[in-house]
Design a protein that fits this description.
Largest sheet: 4 strands, antiparallel
Mean pLDDT: 78
Oligomer: single chain
Strand order of the largest sheet: 2-3-1-4
Length: 188
């Protein structure tokens, strides 16, 4: 089916006019699909997602090379030389979503391409874990189709976001006998 603006009303949540391949820092939130539920709840799954995030610069190059069917060179050297993505920054994996800070230098690859690679790699690793019998199968879709990003515009904003990421797991809202409490119940 071709795009028909009369019946297709999908709007972009991206900042109009912003060059997402031009570099910058971003705070991203990527949500698991509602069908997948709290798919990241098991500690081993959270660890796998963290490892994918930490190794994303090298793994991204593998994906690009496979798409272009080009021979791979030294991934660490290429990632620095390509100038598109230094090592990922702080991140946290919650039971049903992921938060991370990422800094991109200007290059040939956009934030969307990098997030797409991350999502693809996580699904690939999860499916491998399902085949090994480590994790249960997931019904339907794994990720929501999109992701949310906020452009980090200052060092102060970066610090606030890094603090939020660090303490997000502690910000659980718990209802006990009608009282709403913030914090980690295991520490009470």
């Amino acid at each position: 089916m071709t795009y028909d603006p009369a019946i297709h009303h999908r709007r972009s949540i991206r900042l109009k006019g912003h060059d997402y391949a031009g570099g910058g820092e971003y705070f991203v939130t990527i949500c698991a699909h509602r069908e997948a539920g709290k798919i990241f709840d098991p500690p081993s799954v959270r660890e796998m997602v963290r490892e994918v995030w930490e190794n994303l610069p090298n793994r991204f190059l593998e994906i690009i090379a496979n798409k272009k069917r080009a021979p791979m060179k030294n991934a660490r050297t290429d990632s620095v030389g390509a100038g598109f993505m230094p090592a990922p920054m702080p991140a946290v994996v919650m039971p049903d979503h992921f938060h991370g800070l990422i800094a991109l230098r200007g290059g040939d690859h956009s934030l969307g391409e990098i997030i797409g690679a991350f999502k693809s790699l996580v699904v690939h690793e999860y499916v491998a874990g399902v085949k090994r019998g480590d994790w249960p199968r997931f019904p339907g879709k794994f990720w929501h189709r999109n992701y949310y990003e906020k452009i980090v515009q200052s060092a102060e904003a970066r610090e606030r976001i890094a603090h939020y990421i660090q303490f997000n797991p502690v910000q659980l809202r718990v209802r006990l006998k009608g009282i709403v409490a913030l914090g980690n119940p295991t520490l009470w």
